[in-house]
Specification:
The chain has 160 residues and is an alpha+beta fold. It has 5 helices and 6 strands; from the N terminus they run H-H-H-E-H-E-E-H-E-E-E. It has a 4-stranded antiparallel sheet. A two-stranded antiparallel ribbon has the order 5-6.
Amino acid sequence: MNTKILKILAKNARCPIDDIALMTGLTNEEVEKDIKELEGAGLIRGYKTVIDWESLDNAYVSALIELKVIPQDKYGFEKIAETVMKYPEVETVYLMSGSYDLCVIVKGKTFQEVAMFVSKELATMDCVTSTATHFVLRRYKELDVELVGNEKDDRGAYLL
């Protein structure tokens, strides 16, 4: 397995084969073969574009939901996580250590939409004992991509 290729693609999924070959010291054919093998083995699960949704007029709202759940006999947290991740509103599900069990990242058009999803869908599941919702107010970095630094400050100058 070529972890150099994985690291390059993690930073830039659109990196040209020629550039990857140059950075790794491999031929183009070797890079293409390695990428196909990594995809086939399930190590590369997909290619994503990081979009700064907050810059659009029709931005959406995201929230981190803490779920405390009762693990299921023989399955632990697996079946619960699989059920939660099937909702289209759910972007991410993590099993956590600490004070809660599942971390669920949810998106919606409004704060109310997200709140209703949590109260009607997640909180009503038999295995869920409690939820805590934390709304994302600003993204600074996502998936190793910085999302701040290019915008202009329109607050004006402050003189002492």
